[in-house]
Amino acid sequence: MSKPNIIKTSFFIFSALLSLLIWSRFSSVLGSVGTWDFVLAAFLIAFSVGFFILILFLFSDWLPVSVFFVFLLVFMITLGFKIEYLAASVLALLFFIYAQMRLEHNTKNSIKLRFYPAILYGASSLVTAFAILFAFASYFYPFNVSEFKVSPKVFSTFLPIAEKVIESQMPTYQSGMTINDFLAAGAAKELGVSAKVIKRNYKTQLAKQRAEFAKNMGVKLSGGETLKDIM
């Protein structure tokens, strides 16, 4: 076997192994997801996008589509053949072909070959293709949604980000606030008094707001819980 053929064959093998790693890991964590599962999934997706962009950049013939087809084939074999997974694979393949066509068109109209167009036209389409695969795999995979669990460590990891977002949208919220403090601060701002006055003189109203908040959240609240406790 010639050296070019060996290189091409290695792309097929690597694509199959990468797909097997992603989707076998995906099926094994369904039902219980931890922080490292999110981190690993993000890394594998980013790595896969980079891998296929590299192939699109290096080859302009049938090879990129064939290598991605192998990835999709292992996707269906690993998760089990379903018409929904076939539909997802077809959609993902179309986005991949679109990325290749855009890249080839840009290359033909450029004086010199540049890597930037591969990222510009390839990355967005590939991310969309992966999003379709994960969406279909998550929705149609046979597992009991009521038994799905997310590790509390996941929420602890993203809690600072969540609090920053809440603070930007709700000026009365401060990091580490309890439910009672948050409700009292909101009422105090509206009435133009201090939060202490609200807590002392409007206990019944605060209790009603807390009960409504708990109902919407689907949890029981005493008022002393922080955002971390609720998560």
What does this structure look like?
The structure is a single chain. A two-stranded parallel ribbon has the order 1-2. It has 231 residues and is mainly alpha-helical. The model has no long low-confidence stretch (mean pLDDT 75).
Largest sheet: 2 strands, parallel
Spatially, the strands of the biggest sheet line up as 1-2
Q: What overall form do the CA principal axes indicate? A: elongated
What fraction, in percent, of the residue positions are helical? over 70%
Order of helices and strands: HEHHHHEHHHHH
Mean pLDDT: 75
Total strands: the figure is: 2
Low-confidence stretches at least 5 residues in length (pLDDT < 50)?
A: none
Query: Whole-Å distance between the termini?
Result: 57 Å
The helix/strand class is mainly alpha
Strand content: under 5%
Number of helices: 10
**Quaternary state of the chains:** single chain
